[in-house]
Request: fold
Amino acid sequence: MSSKPLLGFGFWRSLAEPLLPDPAWFVDAHWAASERQMVLAYLRQGRPLQQWMGQSWCRLGCGNTTLGSADLTDGTYCWPEGLAHYLEQHQLRLPAEIIHHIRAQSAFPSAQAQAIAPYCPVDNRWWLTQRGWLDAASDFSTGSAASDQDLLRRHERNLLDYGPESEEAQQIRRQLLENIRRKWQQ
Ligand SMILES: [Zn+2]
Reply:
C-alpha cells in the first residue's frame, strides 16, 4: 500500500473551504468535444477511495444536489465523484496538467488505483493555486431557497465552526454568503 499523498483537483470552494477554486473560472464552451469525452470517460473510471457524509451540490446553481459523496482516484490524483457533472453539464475544462496526465496513460491505471489505501492523504497545494481562465463567480447557491436559508441561519447563529484561518479565507466566505443572500433577494 502506497502512503504517498494523492494530488487533489476538482474540489470546489464551500463555506468550510473558501480558499478552494470556483468552478466558474474553468468554463470553456470551445473545448473540443472529443477531448472532453475522453477526459469524462477517464474520470468515471476512478476508483472510489472514501465516502463523505452527505451529497455534494452543484456550485453553478443548476439545482442538482446529488452529485455524489465519494472521492475517486487513479493512483496519482484524487478528484470528487461530482466533478464529471461540471464537465458534462457546465462546459468546464480541466487544467492542461490534468489532461496531459490522462493522455499519457495508455489505459486507466486500475492496478495503481487499487493499491491506494483508503483515506490516503490528499495534497491540494497545486489545486489551490489554480485560477482557471475566466474572471467569473458562482452564485454559490446550494440549489434551493430552503437549504440556502438554512445555511445562512446556521452561519448567523455561529453554529458553523470554521476553526482558525486567514483573513483571505474569511473575506472569501463573506463574499460567498453575500452571493447567496443576493440570489434570494431578487
Ligand atoms: Zn450543475
About this structure: The chain is about 35% helix and 10% strand. The helical segments are 33-44, 83-90, 96-103, 110-114, 125-128, 145-156, 167-185.
